[in-house]
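Lecture 7 notes: from sequence to structure.
We start with the chain below.
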Amino acid sequence: MDRTKIYFKDEIRRSFILYALGPAVGFAFVVIITCAFLWNWRLYTQSVEENRKVSILLEEEISSYKKFCEENPFGDNIVLKDNPAYVYSLLKNFTLNQKIEADFVVLDENSSVVLQGNSQRVFYIPEWQNSSPWGALGRIKSNPEKTIVEVSADYNGLAKPEIVVGHAFFSRDKKPFCLIFFLSPEKIKDILQPSLRFAISNGFGRFLYASDSRYKNQLNEIKSEYRNEKNYFHVEESAVYHARTLDNCFEIYTFSDVSFIKTTFLLLLLSIFIFLSLVVSGLFISAGKIAEEKTVTIDKIVAACESVSKGTFKGRLSVESNIEFQTIANAFNNMLDDVHNLIEENRREVREKYTAELKQLEMQFNPHFMFNTLETIKFLIKLDPERAQKTIVCLSELLRYSIDSGISVMPISEDLHYIENYLYILQLRFGERFTYSIDVPDSVKNCQIPKLILQSLIGNSVKHGFEGIDKMHVSITARSVSGRLVISVHDNGSGMDKETLKSVRSILKSEQNESGHTGLHNAQRRIKLMYGDSFGLKIESSKESGTKIKVTLPVIR
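Predicted structure tokens for the same chain:
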């Protein structure tokens, strides 16, 4: 029970100290939230800035190498074997002017090395490359009009990932040659802060470089815990910021150590918790005893109110303290008597009203069906007396079942017996134009449903579905789905347009009905009265595609 809501005059004065808890807790909460926000914001801005530095450097350098290749620095009149010194000088001067100095090789049409920027470097071509268009070299040769940028570890003999920027050219004598730059990501750290913690991978997570080996797994990929759809997140003792660059070719990860800040924050939390614990303990020890002694009567009143809020009206309040509380107790008891009497009277009225309405709905039977059936019997008596006799039996069983006021619900298996009588009469009337199928598994045949609820739905399909078509099929299915019984009546009739469907759905939501869809409305009304608003009909239809009515009921066996 919340003692801060006891407003008795004398007790408020003596327990006023409790209100000191609010500012103390509020201040502590503000301090914690502010510190947490500033801590996380500082980490975020630091991570973003470090990531931006790496991204900008990588973008600028790779873009510079791409631009160099795409502008064709050799011209159209170059003959590679005649001008090796010129080509070498051109490439060497270019790489020396870049922040990240790249190694380079020039390959002739047979993939033999013509020029190499660093004689110490081993340029290695895997055996599979000679017979396959795959790999960076294969893509460079296959796309002479395009500069290829990707991560590869295939061409240095050490399986060491590096950035490959390559382009294919044609010399004056129409012989192709390839220019390939190899950028070592390790040089990025030398250009930036030595203490910077970062990792670079290609767009598929393949590892390129990391300042610390703990960020990669045994498959030479960025560890799965560091791969996240979010740009900023925390993993273990690191704040991680992740961004893509160069049209998603590369992923940049920057890592900020949070262990020191986390330790400081935990010490702050511990200090605040100890302080609040001491304050709260002192306040409760001194004020708790006084409040407990002076609020016995109020506790009784609150307990009585809670009992009423839970629907219990039989208990009565007995108070033997101040005259003010005795007056409240007497008024409370008189109110309970009046409320209890009103509830019982209202229950009787509602029960009688619902019972009368349910009986009326159950006994409603389509007069057109009766007239058509009797007309059919009249002709059958002369043409086929045996079928006429069977039809009379089916009709009489159906009528007797519909007017039996002692039955409101039946198992599906028994209700289907009478529905099949109804379907037999319909099939007799329409002949080959009307067919039906029933699919009800044994697992739900003992479930209880309102009697003849399916008859009104089938009648609706026949009444409205035959407009403009020669033949119609009605399928009836029942399943238990997620603890509910779902029965479907699906026809392939003429269906409804959007406006008609909207009108029918509106009728199903209203309590009154003045339209021609009495069968659907009566079925919906019966279900709502018997089981509540959580159950009922749902209708789906489109023009010339038939109509599907889904009935949702509770599973009652």
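Points to note: The radius of gyration is 43 Å. Confidence is low (pLDDT under 50) at residues 356-363.
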